[in-house]
Amino acid sequence: MNYERASGLMQVLLNHYGLREQPFAMTSDPKFLYLGSGHRESLASLVYSIAAGRGFVALVAETGMGKTTLLFNLLRQLQGYAETAFLFQTQFNPREFMQYLLIELGHKMANQDLVLAYDDFNKNLVRNARAGKKTVIVIDEAQNLDIPVLETVRLLSNFETPKNKLLHIVMAGQPRLADKLSDPSLVQLRQRISVIAHLSPLSPEETCSYIAHRLRVAGYEGVPLFAPGALAMIAAHSKGIPRNINNLCFAALSIAYALGKRTVDPNIVDEAAADFDLSRVGSQQCAESYPSAEAVEFAGTYLRAFKAAMGEAAQSRGPASNGVPNEIAMGDWATV
Ligand SMILES: Nc1ncnc2c1ncn2[C@@H]1O[C@H](COP(=O)(O)OP(=O)(O)OP(=O)(O)O)[C@@H](O)[C@H]1O
Ligand SMILES: [Mg+2]
After folding, report:
1. Is 38 in the pocket of ligand 1 (CB under 6 A)?
2. Is 26 a pocket residue for ligand 1 (Cβ < 6 Å)?
3. Cα–Cα distance between 245 and 310 in angstroms, integer?
4. Hey, which of 31, 62, 65, 250 would you mutate to test ligand 1's pocket, going by the most ligand atoms within 8 Å of its Cβ?
5. pLDDT tens per residue, the chain (336 residues)?
6. Structural domains of the chain, ranges and CATH numbers in brackets
7. 39 CB under 6 A from ligand 1?
8. Whose CA is nearest to atom 8 of ligand 1?
9. What's the rounded Cα separation, in Å, for the pair 63 and 298?
10. How far is the CA of 230 from the centre of ligand 2 (A)?
């Protein structure tokens, strides 16, 4: 299949479900941000730390949990209040790091010399401070930074006046970042980090709300696309990791479409999950069947919980009522 045909098919799929755009894309588009309790708390703690001048903060979570998506939202919120630099390429030495940083801060010709680069950086900070603006450096994928670069990041904190924090640094990364920061050689940096935010997997309830939210943002209006049992299976197979949820939902919708079904049922989710089972295609085929007995039991438990909750919600169905934007009340599960 060529690219043109593939995009044509994608469009057919979107039209079939009445979607304006792909609801489960792999991009970290902040427009789709869903704030479950953990994501909401972490975002709030990042925003608050910057507003309160806490200096260094870190965001640590497993891959696919939504760090980059959250950072993009943070950058949006800072527009107009701060000059921001978003760094995500992390394979460089201290000099390259400073150059990259200066370029991100709008210096056309970033200084080659490290000392001069620090000087340029300092002038930039002072200029922003005089204009009443914060300077915020957001470093994504920080788990890949080498120790000397982390030490350079630490040195940036010297650009402070006794009274004001001129500079705020947010470092986001996978758990390896936490391991690195525990290295005895980085004790000075570690001590400067005032907040370490964490993202935990979405609960099964949040998984349902997340799916509903993404479908709504993508323009879906209509009858439920995912049967309750299918939602339970997605929660179980994805383990509440948003990237896994996206993968499963998109694969399941594609399979449902191919089978001429409007609704995704649990069998379809199983089939979609099997497509992501690398052990089936690896050189050593895994003897264990998929889903594992554990996953099925997990799904079964949540399926029963969903049904019970939906039974209650159906009886007392009223407006979505938890008062939290981006959240969906329990009663809305049935309309995912
Ligand atoms: N809270 C959320 N709301 C909406 N979508 C989310 C959320 N969290 C994650 N996603 C989606 O899941 C996918 C993975 O998210 P993201 O790229 O932000 O993860 P990450 O933690 O940065 O992963 P990695 O460590 O691999 O870089 C993206 O498609 C993103 O849109
Ligand atoms: Mg990321």
Report:
1. no
2. yes
3. 21
4. 65
5. 677 777 777 888 899 999 999 999 999 999 999 999 999 999 999 999 998 888 899 999 999 999 999 999 999 999 988 999 999 988 889 999 999 999 999 887 766 788 888 888 988 888 888 888 889 999 999 999 999 999 999 988 777 665 667 789 999 999 999 999 999 999 999 999 989 999 999 999 999 999 999 999 999 998 999 999 999 999 999 999 999 999 999 999 999 999 999 899 999 999 999 887 766 666 654 344 334 444 444 444 444 444 444 444 334 333 333 332 332 222 232 333
6. 3-25+203-335 (no CATH), 37-198 (3.40.50.300)
7. yes
8. 66
9. 22
10. 27
